[in-house]
Amino acid sequence: MKKDLHPTSYRPVVFQDLNNGDQFITRSTVQADDKVTVDGVDYPLVKVHISRTSHPYFTGEERIVDIEGRVDKFKARAAAGEANKEKRAAAAQKLVKRAADKAAKAADQVQTKIDSPSPAAQ
After folding, report:
1. How far is the C-alpha of 39 from the C-alpha of 32, rounded, in Å?
2. DSSP readout, 61-121?
3. Cβ distance 39 to 8 under 8 Å?
4. Could you read off the pLDDT of 10-54 as tens digits, one per residue?
5. pLDDT tens digit string along 54-79?
6. Which of 30, 68, 75, 91 is 20 to 30 A (C-alpha) from 24?
7. What Å distances lie between residue 28 and 5, 7, 65, 85, CA to CA?
8. Which strands sit side by side in the sheet containing 23-28, from one edge to the other?
9. Which whole-number Å values give the CA distances from 71 to 57, 62, 82, 107, in the listed order?
């Protein structure tokens, strides 16, 4: 068996749900800066936003838990995207026109070469 394969910091840790204050103790290697005393014993404390006691799947409740404002950020990006839709459409038309002009110019150059007699033919 390989030596030093398993982590050495596997210890009891308290996880605390920030939604309802529920705490549970389990073993983990997670690094924690905070400490908490449970039943007279000091444990490292890890704060989580959602746990089994507040997750809608386990509680049967349907609610939005958005501490970092991710839903608001998404809605703002969607609104900005709708506002810029016309601007993007105009830019796309400009690109299509530029490509068509470039293709027409290349076709004219080819046609000019076909129409002009080569010096060897004279």
Report:
1. 19
2. ------SS-HHHHHHHHHHHHHHTHHHHHHHHHHHHHHHHHHHHHHHHHHHHHHHSPPGGG
3. no
4. 999 999 998 888 899 999 999 988 999 999 999 999 998 888 787
5. 776 666 666 666 667 777 888 888 88
6. 68
7. 16, 10, 25, 48
8. 23-28, 11-17, 41-48, 34-38
9. 19, 15, 17, 51
Token pair for residue 95? 């690109």
Cα separation, 30 vs 18, in Å, equals 17
pTM for the model stands at 0.47
Q: Could you state, in order of their start, the residue ranges of all structural domains in the chain? A: 8-65, 68-115
Angle at 68 between CA 63 and CA 73, to 5 degrees: 90
The single residue listed with the structure tokens 């490509």 is 99
CB 93 within 8 A of CB 59: no
With bands split at pLDDT 50, 70 and 90, how would you rate the model's confidence at 97?
very high
Query: Which residues on neighbouring strands pair with residue 47, listed in sequence order?
Result: 16
